[in-house]
From TrEMBL:
UniProt xrefs under InterPro entries: GlbO/GLB3-like, Globin-like_sf, Globin/Proto, Hemoglobin_trunc
The name this protein goes by in its record: Two-on-two hemoglobin-3 isoform X2
Alphabetical list of Gene3D superfamilies matching this protein: Globins
UniProt record similarity statement: Belongs to the truncated hemoglobin family. Group II subfamily.
CDD domains given in the database record: TrHb2_AtGlb3-like_O
Keywords assigned: Heme, Iron, Metal-binding, Oxygen transport, Transport
Amino acid sequence: MQSLQEKASEWSGVAASDAFAIDETNLFQALGGLQPFVDLSTNFYNRVYADEYEWFRSIFAGSRKEDAIQNQYEFFVQRMGGPPLYSQRKGHPALIGRHRPFPVTHQAADRWLYHMQQALDSVSSIDPESKIKMMNFFRHTYCIFSCSWK
Ligand code: HEM
């Protein structure tokens, strides 16, 4: 039987070695701390909450934008070599379970990635090489909880 990791690689087209290149350098240190992560998540959720499609905006309607930003950047910080801010505040990330209430369809996942790519493109506090590593991680990870669609 294929492992979840293998399936995610196949569906996302991102090899595990590329997805986990984020673990080869400490991105939190390389980027100089918290601010680039705050920039990225703020830029991302500004786009998400202003999305032209109501069906996509409605997925996030139950959360305050400020909370969604903080949840996301704290998770990214801890996953990319920084202090465990997310777990200190909320416990285990358990992303599969935490996304279960939301309709993460193929279409929604594509839209999420689209906004993340746009956000990465417009944040100047992250260097180009780190952006590629982060995007590979996002593409692979979103597949872990949404690619067995559904
Ligand atoms: C595939 C498309 C995705 C959709 C539609 C989606 C949707 C959502 C929604 C609606 C929330 C609730 C907002 C909040 O209150 O925090 C959320 C939370 C979150 N998402 Fe996603 N997400 C997606 C992909 C991802 C990916 C790829 C990651 C990580 C690499 C991720 C990490 C998180 C985290 C850490 C939270 C906070 C969970 C919590 O503390 O409740 N999401 N997501």
